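Purpose: get a first structural picture of the assembly so the mutagenesis plan has something to point at.
Setup: two entries, given in the order below. No constraints added.
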Amino acid sequence: MSDDKPKGDMDPEAFRREGYRVVDWIARYFEDPGRYPVMSRVKPGEVRAALPASAPESGESFDAILEDFERVIVPGITHWNHPGFFAYFAITGSGPGVLGEMLSAALNAQGMLWRTSPSVTELEEVVMAWLRQLMGLPASFQGVIYDTASVSSLHALAAARQAAVPGVRAEGLAGRGLPRYRVYCSEHAHSSIDKAVILIGLGHDALRKIPADAEFRMRADALQAAIAEDRRAGIVPLAVVATVGTTSTTSVDPVEAIADVCARERAWLHVDCAYAGVAAIIPEYRHVLRGVDRADSVVVNPHKWLFTPFDLSAFYCRRMDALVEAFSLTPEYLRTSETGTVRNLMDTGVQLGRRFRALKLWMVLRYFGADGIRARLGEHMRLARLFASWVDADPDFERLAPVPFSVVCFRARPGGRQWSENELERLNQGLLDRLNASGEVFLSHTKLDGRFVLRLAVGNLRTEERHVRRAWELVKRSAPPSGSDAFPR
Amino acid sequence: MSDDKPKGDMDPEAFRREGYRVVDWIARYFEDPGRYPVMSRVKPGEVRAALPASAPESGESFDAILEDFERVIVPGITHWNHPGFFAYFAITGSGPGVLGEMLSAALNAQGMLWRTSPSVTELEEVVMAWLRQLMGLPASFQGVIYDTASVSSLHALAAARQAAVPGVRAEGLAGRGLPRYRVYCSEHAHSSIDKAVILIGLGHDALRKIPADAEFRMRADALQAAIAEDRRAGIVPLAVVATVGTTSTTSVDPVEAIADVCARERAWLHVDCAYAGVAAIIPEYRHVLRGVDRADSVVVNPHKWLFTPFDLSAFYCRRMDALVEAFSLTPEYLRTSETGTVRNLMDTGVQLGRRFRALKLWMVLRYFGADGIRARLGEHMRLARLFASWVDADPDFERLAPVPFSVVCFRARPGGRQWSENELERLNQGLLDRLNASGEVFLSHTKLDGRFVLRLAVGNLRTEERHVRRAWELVKRSAPPSGSDAFPR
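Result (structure tokens, whole complex):
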């Protein structure tokens, strides 16, 4: 190695200087993310084409990198920070959360073992207990942090499999003459449940979708009937996934009745409240988690509606033994003198390495406080109800689902003529495309009983009443007027 | 909601002020992480006990939070940034990488779909192509970024299962009269392979560990014999996992010979070069990936030895169709007008949500440049060889494995008397404990053919020759002298 080549990292003074610039950039960005179009306007391939095909041979200045970041990367960003972001579930990387991520990145602690950073393990225990208490869940739930709800639910079903299928860890599922197994969820459960069932080797057909009632909630009677039918066919119920806050409509499955069925059938009950679980932090919404105390596992995502930068999924389990049995495996090179006396995060999941994710959630919970969180969640739900009231009052629109939280499902249906479902889909798809092309708002859609539906999801800390009002103005302006026959492109 | 309660996020001016403070903290930290004991000295439960049992009811100042961070959290950190960190695989969250994480956290972009941030998808394609070229892998490999190598290898084996087991996605593994399947790896493969095989439902017994040669490399002849034996018993070979840079000794499996076996047996070949793959960026080390161009999938972790903050695992696949077939699943609420014409990251894995991880890797590759990376990796390997030369020259020590990269496996074996293996284990465990209690260095151990071995892994950007010299001084000082009979506690 020649002496004139740098041997180490960016020096600390340069880090300070560039760090200030990055903080300045972020602060200016946070002043008004609304200056950008919310949904990126780049064309497919445009970002890729603007960048060199190969890495540079020699190092470049951070100046040049930051310039390209602004020039090439930022235009290709869809701004989840934008107050007009109403698509999917709106999220917030709040100030204290971002500061937590900065410190976590700098510490670069990897928490696979207690000794590789005791604070990673123990702060995770602390914040998971805080969050559990805030939501009113009992201490029988132990918590562990994963990256996404997909991974949390995957672990839930892997633990359920471990608990239900004798010898599965050693012998697996194939070639053993085992019966067929079934997992149940409503037709409105999240696609991550499908993926998890496929991945753990049960097969997609093993997931039985239970019909929902008129308000998109799983029918517990239909669940019971499906299990009975399956049992008659020799199929063993392995788990039921109930959802509190489904993706399309945020409907709430009847967890108590489902828990009764699970208790009777000795099936693992996993509750996916990735989005809506945090609503239970507000006393008047505590009831949405009724029955969840009887679940075997629960997932709630602070990176969704709890102002925590992506990613951080909180997984709670009352049968941590099954999770540990499913995954614990200590090769010699990871054995420590503490093994057996402390918690090692690697024992509770498929991922060996663990980021220090608890730090950002700890900062968020402390900075906003329980009352600050309640006020903000309550305001988001007020804004959604307000928007719903405008939809309800307008004869050219209809609402297609209740609004239990902060998401409104609606569509245009201009008065003055009859519409076929096909026509309404074209009309509302056009409306959605025009709204999203405005750059001021970004909404997404779903289908409910075959009907194409727009979703307005309030969830970003920057979203105020004026933004929701503006969204309604844009919706009104972009929809065909009453009595219209014209189909916009 | 009362009017006197805050409704939004930390305001941008406050963010700027606190951001500067955090950057100052990090810059001071980066000046000398060596001022802290490398392995945390807190006792189990100490961090937890220093924090309140419940979240605060009212929000707190960021001042108070930062104070507790310094007072409670930092003492519980094991400093992966410390130049004396020689345990496991030493890593670096470099300056440009940390700045990338700051911007990524602030943008809070979630890249599940192309449209939810085109830059997340396309910059990932760009940097994955850059890294692939740097390592000399052909363009037939497509890349996708996951969090950890555990998850990368899980996806490799899930894709292998998809390719090998007819109908597995729909029908799963149980109750179908399928044959038994087998996955093969060496006895030195990483524990994540065990976990993946368990998770996808094959069962731990389906993983057959192939014996290694005297230099800890999988024996291709033993692999061929094991497959033949299994076939005679009706067991179908599903995949082989070869390792370039095993965890214990960084040995390199004979990938070419293994690829021959896989081709003959039509088994998926996955190569785990999570740690050592990046060595191929140096032309003289290109050969360590010989044969990897014939693999079906490869994992290399920039968060290990490529200066990228944890987490970022690069997964390459030549049969992306199998991966997509295994995981692609588009519910209505995630359907977009671009579906089918662009790449949506959610189609290539179990995780729906994706962080903007590519940004930090892009900044690292540009800031250091290919030649800067080569120089740094080369220097780490020089330092390891230097340490190995001291071990080799000292009659009271012995080296227990070759040093192909930047890890040295050694132990004390003081001259002047005979030792049993039990005595040597006690002696070297004592040596390791004293070294790690010094606060100046942190080493880990493994076992090789029943022998307790210390590992010194060079990999942090701050580690210079003087730190490796100091480590050797401490090793010498902490070991019993030649001729000694005394067993230190």
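Chain B has 15 helices and eleven strands.
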